[in-house]
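Study this protein:
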Amino acid sequence: MAGMGTSYASLPNKLASAPNGVDYAYRDTGEGPDKSTAPLVLLQHFRGNLDSWDPALIDGLADGLAGGRRVVAFDNAGVGGSTGTTPHTIEQMAADAIAFIGAMGFARADILGFSIGSFVAQEIALIRPDLVRGLVLASAAPKGADGIHGWAPEVIGAVGKPETSPEEYLGVFFTSSPASRKAGQEALGRMYARTEDRDDATTWPVREAQYDAVCTWGIPDHAALQRLAAIRHHVFVANGDSDPMIPPRYSHLIAGLLPDATVKIYPDAAHGFLFQHHAEFAADVSVSLDEPA
């Protein structure tokens, strides 16, 4: 379990005040035995907050990383329990995330970005390469790639409306197979098991700002793809084989553009592959981040 026996589901909400004036809500599995060791910082998906992470995944990451390194999830500016305003660009989201990392006193960090968080993770690695030790991109797409100027109508119609039902969430994050749907229901059960001190729900202005950022990121621009050549870190790129939100072909595209990348596509899985295959994904992340640089 995370934090020396404490599951992510039971970690307290904390606040970190940054010089940019934002108080960031976060949860932290606790300091490892070596305080100088880089933590793993998590960047959340579209409209997600601290409670949108599967505790089983966070616990698996905390248990699997060498040296008992801490795992930190946070709400970026304007999201959930954090103050401030959610920006309309990925670039500003990256600057805000860098401010949080600085406020936590981390000189270097491993970064795991999921969905829109993977866009922010790419930008952090480009803006502040020395801050990043290792990089994991889950359900990722590169800036300017053809076909990601907004999500498919059935996807944004499910997860982009004011209220997303559990069935609509399952339809995007998991496949229609009995095994995947069962895994999705179990993941939702773990996410909603926490009944006290839950994070603030994300608001409609957050949804609007984040989707503006997604659409701007996806404006076709072939030249923008060349930016990835500047990311010299080892990158683990992963997705589900049936993701309707960010199809796995973009994982292969990213892996081909990065100088040093490993790609893995998980079977019978959609956008929430990392929750469905939480134990396998946590083990794969640990191997990637613990490899010698």
Remarks:
- The chain has a mean pLDDT of 94.
- The chain has eleven helices and eight strands.
- The CA atoms of residues 17 and 23 lie 4 Å apart.
